[in-house]
């Protein structure tokens, strides 16, 4: 009985180890071949959306910078003490009423004097609340 048990154990170990060796590299090779074949047959379809995003990304940055530049009120929109002049008031009105909803933030160029910068912001807030 003891001899039979030892023989079955040795045979079991040999079978399991040979199955593991045969299954490992050979099975891995055939999986790689199948995956490579599927990739080659699907090419270039899986990569098109990522490529389109990569091409459009710089243009989206340019468009956002253009809107920011367009919505910025600079020195010529204010008088000397930080109050909006007529051109600045009309610009705020145009931004608030006519531009697309996502493109309505109003940017104010800072002055070298913090008091004038604060006056500019308050003037723009008052004008935007008016419309």
Q: Which strand order do you get reading across the main beta sheet?
A: 1-2
**Outline:** elongated
Summing up helix and strand content along with how strands pair, one would put the structural category as: mainly alpha
Question: What gap, in angstroms, lies between the N and C termini?
Answer: 99 Å
Element order, helices and strands? HHEHEH
Radius of gyration: 35 Å
Note down, in words, how this protein is organized:
- The protein is mainly α and 131 residues long.
- Helices cover 72% and strands 3% of the residues.
- It has 4 helices and 2 strands, in the order ααβαβα.
- Strands 1-2 form a two-stranded parallel ribbon.
- Strand 1 (72-73), helix 3 and strand 2 (107-108) form a beta-alpha-beta unit.
- The longest helix has 41 residues, at 2-42.
- The protein is elongated, with a radius of gyration of 35 Å.
- The model has no long low-confidence stretch (mean pLDDT 89).
Summary keywords:
single chain, 131 residues, mainly alpha, two-stranded parallel sheet, 72% helix
Structure described in brief:
The chain has 131 residues and is mostly helical. It has helices spanning 2-42, 48-70, 86-98, 114-130, and strands spanning 72-73, 107-108.
């Amino acid at each position: 009985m003891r001899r039979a048990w030892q023989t079955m154990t040795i045979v079991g170990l040999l079978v399991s180890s040979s199955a593991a060796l045969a299954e490992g590299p050979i099975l891995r090779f055939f999986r790689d071949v199948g995956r490579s074949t599927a990739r080659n047959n699907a090419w270039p379809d899986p990569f098109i959306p990522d490529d389109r995003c990569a091409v459009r990304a710089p243009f989206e940055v340019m468009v956002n910078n253009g809107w920011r530049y367009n919505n910025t009120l600079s020195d010529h929109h204010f008088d000397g003490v930080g109050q909006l002049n007529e051109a600045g008031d009309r610009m705020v009105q145009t931004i608030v009423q006519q531009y697309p909803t996502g493109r309505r933030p109003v940017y104010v160029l800072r002055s070298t004097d913090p008091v004038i910068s604060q006056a500019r912001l308050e003037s723009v807030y008052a004008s935007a609340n008016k419309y």
